[in-house]
Amino acid sequence: MREAAAAVRRDVVTPAERAARGKKARSALPRSRHAEYDRDPTAPAPLELLSRQGASRVPELLPIRDERMALSPFSYFRGAALPMASDLAGSPRTGFTVQACGDAHLSNFGLFASPERRLVFDINDFDETLPGPWEWDVKRLAASLEIAGRDNGYTRKQRLEIVTGAVAEYRLAMREFSGWPVLEVWYAHADVDTVRSTYARQLSAARRKKLSQTTAKARAKDNLGALRKFTEVGGGQPRIASDPPLVVRVEDLGFPRERATAVIAELQEMLAMYRETLEPDRRLLLDRYRVVDFARKVVGVGSVGTRCWMLLLLGNDDQDPLFLQAKEAGPSVLEAYLGPSAFGNSGERVVVGQRLMQAVGDIFLGWVRATGLDGEIRDFYVRQLRDWKGSADIETMDPVGMRAYGRLCGWTLARAHARTGDAIAIGSYLGSGPCFDRAIGEFARVYADQNERDHAALADAVRDRATSPGGGK
To answer: Which of 59, 63, 126 is nearest to 327 (CA)?
Structure first.
């Protein structure tokens, strides 16, 4: 016992030593070098990477993914987490590891309900989460702001102010968190009232009204709202309404009747296995509901083609619904460049990463491994489909609103990283001046140029398929 205690004490590093590590890292990797970007000419092209990624997905849904990504440079960027991971693989990094989101673009932040029924702002997509370099998340967020700003027609100066403002907020927040007690960092979160009081003064009256409308809309996106949106009455009770190809009930997927019956039984079994990953109190709550319907659902941009199920459960009566979403989880796009996950189940990887990064989480968050429709064993994570979900309308934001939103995302990302990484070392590395902010601003500009070329290549490929004989079918 004394030997074990001594070993623990030898592993203890004081705050001063951790700060020294951060400062020392500046010598090994000057902050200005984070401006560097140069695609490895030997790396696979983005379209090749996307094609490989699509090989394991539902084939008939892949054209939807490509069409969504081809809409604009920003929509392409949203679906191109894998190509960017490839691009970042050779980029400079300090060696300080955090639980990385892996896809921290500005549309993957948003509003949702806490278990205490408060509306909070946080990262809301963890499909690619994995321990990794903190710099990669910062660069993906910064590049997304630059690209979205271009799509919205902002000037170069406005875009630079937005990007460097978000990075500065990340830097200052990380330095602030480095001085907080560990538990205070863990409990820190941004509820909607805090967001409103912090940023409202920077917004016009119209933008403040828009913020209020967004929060009201988020609160309306609950289970009853989903009941109205996604169901119809069939057989005397609600059932999910097919809206192909985006929502398709199991019975409408084209399977023989006996196979459709078997699929429903398999999904029921999947739900029972998922139940075992919940805490005992959550299991008791889940047991108050009965499953009445399933449907396949198309979600997101980059996720299109993954197997995703919408599950309708009812409690006391037909007006007491619970909607769950079971989404396929494959290896993180980061694993090809950082090594495999420590979790054998990719659904568990997503759930654990989400619990580590989010200040508050979905009470029904869990995972399962089950047989898919094609007979293949696949991993899934499960969460509520809608629980006061809300997102910013990026396309209608003015530059002032985007700058405030970018700062909020920067603070939120820093808080997530501070929970799982060495905030003292990272904060010390970042420093009190804007050197790092400027470097990432330059990186974002250069990467946005590359993203435009990649988007054009995809758009050309989609157009060529559409105009080729039989391509529009």
So the answer is: 126
- φ, ψ (nearest 5 deg) of residue 4: -65, -45
| Distance, CA of 409 to CA of 219 (rounded, Å) | 21
Q: What is the pLDDT of residue 198?
A: 60
Taking only the tens place, the pLDDT of each residue in 300-330 is: 788 888 888 899 999 999 888 999 999 999 9
Q: Where are the beta strands (DSSP E) in 303-406?
A: 308-314, 321-328, 366-371, 377-384
> What's the rounded Cα separation, in Å, for the pair 54 and 65?
9
pLDDT over 50 (residue 175): yes
Which residues, including other chains, have CB under 8 Å from residue 307's CB and lie 6 or more apart?
A: 57, 58, 296, 327, 328, 372, 373, 378, 380
Mean pLDDT of the chain: 88
Spatial separation of the C-alpha atoms in residues 110 and 121, rounded to whole Å: 5
The pLDDT-based confidence of 229 (bands split at 50, 70, 90) is: confident
CB–CB of 75/323 below 8 Å? no
Angle between helical axes of 46-54 and 435-467 (0-180°, round to 10): 70
- The SS3 of residue 54 is helix
Q: CA 22 to CA 427: how far, in whole Å?
A: 7
- pLDDT band for position 210 (50/70/90)? low
- Provide the 10 A C-beta neighbour count for residue 315: 14
The secondary structure of 170-211 as a DSSP string is: HHHHHHHHTTS-HHHHHH--EEHHHHHHHHGGGS-HHHHHHH
Q: How far apart are the first and last CA of the chain?
A: 70
Name residue 321's beta-bridge partners: 314
Q: Which residues contact 9 (CB under 8 A, 6 or more apart)?
A: none
Residue type, 208: R
Whether the predicted pLDDT of 26 surpasses 70: yes
Measured CA to CA, the distance from residue 166 to residue 160 in angstroms comes to 10
Cβ-proximal residues to 48 (8 Å cutoff; 6+ apart), any chain: none
Q: Phi-psi bin for 162: left (phi > 0), alpha (psi -120 to 50), beta?
A: alpha
Mean pLDDT value across residues 392-400: 90
CA separation for the pair 308, 58 (Å, rounded): 10
Measure Cα distances from 214 to 113, 194, 201, 405 in Å: 14, 15, 17, 13
